[in-house]
Amino acid sequence: MEVILLERVGKHGQMGDVVRVRDGFARNFLLPQGRALRATKDNLAKFEGMKAQLEARNLERKAEAEKVGGKLEGQSFVVLRQASDIGQLYGSVTTRDIATLVGEGGVSIDRSQVAINAPIKTIGQHRVPIVLHPELEVTVTVVVARNAEEAERIKRGEDVTARREDREVAEAAAEEFFENPEAGQAGQEEE
């Protein structure tokens, strides 16, 4: 289906462009949200009449987004989750979680504005882009940790996941214990 874009839409085009999009995308997203009109002669004439008004509205929205972007740019948010010793989360941090965190920080955003392709599933610092306006994107840092102390260590740049050598030593000690239980009991009696 051919549509006239009333605002900039991602990878499809700028305001005023006549583009061909999939029928479902146009019917279910662009047309109901008022982001496009069907490309007919009547609508082309209607668009030319509305063009100045649409450009003014776009500049107003962009100015509001820039104010919000100034507050958000470079901010850091901490998420506490349970995770294994190697840093793999038992759950994940999703767009909904990030939108809630930013909302608690004083700026209300929708989860669709959080631009991550997949949920965060590891401990560490993650840079997350937030699209406030089709022409404006800011980046926040999300620190995923098991507790507040660990979050501070991650912010300083430390690696808090168990190193491979440490795991191998622990596995060897466990293996020794289970192969020779008397040695493990003797160690407990001395304490």
Describe the overall structure:
The structure is a single chain. With 191 residues, this protein is α+β, with helices and mostly antiparallel strands. It folds into two domains: 68 residues, 3-Layer(aba) Sandwich (Ribosomal Protein L9, domain 1), CATH 3.40.5.10; 88 residues, Ribosomal Protein L9, domain 2 (Roll), CATH 3.10.430. 45% of the residues lie in helices and 23% in strands. It has six helices and eight strands; from the N terminus they run ββαβαββαβββααα. The strands form three sheets. Strands 2-1-3 form a three-stranded antiparallel beta sheet, covered by helices on one side. A three-stranded mixed beta sheet has the order 4-8-7, sandwiched between helices. Strands 5-6 form a two-stranded antiparallel ribbon. Strand 7 and strand 8 form a beta hairpin. Helix 5 crosses helix 6. The radius of gyration is 26 Å and the shape is elongated. The mean pLDDT is 85.
Q: Report the strand count.
A: 8
Give the helix/strand class: alpha+beta
Strand neighbour order, sheet with most strands: 2-1-3
Query: Main beta sheet, described?
Result: 3 strands, antiparallel
Terminal Cα separation, in Å?
78 Å
Instruction: Using the coordinates shown, work out and report the CATH topology of the largest domain.
Output: Ribosomal Protein L9, domain 2
- SSE string: EEHEHEEHEEEHHH
CATH domain class name of the largest domain: Alpha Beta
What is the CATH architecture term of the largest domain? Roll
What is the CATH H-level superfamily of the largest domain? Ribosomal protein L9, C-terminal domain
**Number of DSSP helical runs:** 6
Helix content: 40-55%
* Poorly predicted runs of 5 or more residues: none
**Cα shape:** elongated
Mean pLDDT: 85
| Rg calculated over all Cα atoms | 26 Å
Number of domains: 2
